[in-house]
Amino acid sequence: MFSFIKKGLQKTIEAIAAIAPEKKAKISKDELENILLEADVEYDLVEIILRELYQNDITRDQLRSKLLATLAYAQNSLPDNPNKPTVTLIIGVNGAGKTTTIAKLAQHHLNKGERVILGAGDTFRAAAIEQLTRWADKLDVPIVSSRQGHDPSAVAYDTIESAKARGFEQVIIDTAGRLHTQTNLGNELKKIVRICDKAHTGAPHRKILILDGTQGSSAIAQAKAFNEMIGVDGIIITKLDGTAKGGSVFSIAYALSLPILYIGVGEQPEHLIPFDKYEFVDGILDAIFGEETAK
Ligand SMILES: Nc1nc2c(ncn2[C@@H]2O[C@H](COP(=O)(O)OP(=O)(O)OP(=O)(O)O)[C@@H](O)[C@H]2O)c(=O)[nH]1
What we know:
Blueprint: H1 2-8, H2 10-19, E1 26-28, H3 29-38, H4 43-51, E2 57-59, H5 60-70, E3 86-91, H6 98-111, E4 116-119, H7 126-139, E5 143-144, H8 152-166, E6 170-173, H9 182-199, E7 206-212, H10 217-230, E8 234-238, H11 248-256, E9 260-264, E10 272-274, H12 277-289
Parallel strand pairs: 3-6, 3-7, 4-5, 4-6, 7-8, 8-9
Antiparallel strand pairs: 1-2, 9-10
Helix pairs in contact: 2-12, 3-4, 5-12, 6-7, 8-9, 10-11
The protein binds guanosine-5'-triphosphate.
Guanosine-5'-triphosphate binds at residues 92, 94-100, 128, 131, 177, 238-239, 241-242, 264-267, 271.
């Protein structure tokens, strides 16, 4: 698992290594500032971290405790849902990686022996329905879909009904990332939430926001908007493998105070790993201080 995190952080680790090629037991505040900015930690958070480090030469342990503190809320799991099926609503802007992440989550449940059904709730775009259907075929899981332009809450309702009738444990419902206006999107998502609860009291049990880890402050703005619309229970940050901006995880976690459930580190169904703040921070620290100084 640890090496999986490191593989996902490879580009970030390389970028850090390029500006801090020499591994030392202590680094100066100036060096640290450059490293954090290079890794795409937002400027405000870099300032906060530096302000709270009193010495000019910073050790691994000192930095470790500061970085972990920024992830204080990040490591929280969601409560178990005893009332099966568990309904997960996937939200986020187009291109964030929603469809791929749904496939990854489905694979994750299948690995645990749970039965999964997908709902193609992004009825705004025909391509979204087709793409999710391809994943369903590949993973050999059922999918409920309708034609483009149909009411997505009807898709959500039918998916949940089908899961209940077949005794499935997991329902994962896709949603649109964009409509003609933001207000339309908010209203549509609210309606889907209402209808899920009608189909199965308490559903959706998880409203999970997919954020593209390469998007920095725009990901934070998106999260705030979706949180205001329908409330977000947890986040999955995608595409960390494809970016040198892995430090954005700190800014996202710090700005939102929401659990980071998983991170996406590739395009295949198995490329989803549970977020572990200790592994994540140690991966970054190893890049700065070198592994030999670990612990
Ligand atoms: N490298 C990498 N690529 C990813 C990851 N997650 C998603 N992608 C890629 O990002 C692109 C967009 O992902 P989708 O799953 O299509 O995203 P979406 O939010 O459904 O976007 P649309 O289909 O455009 O609405 C695809 O090319 C995915 O393969 C990840 O963790 N790592």
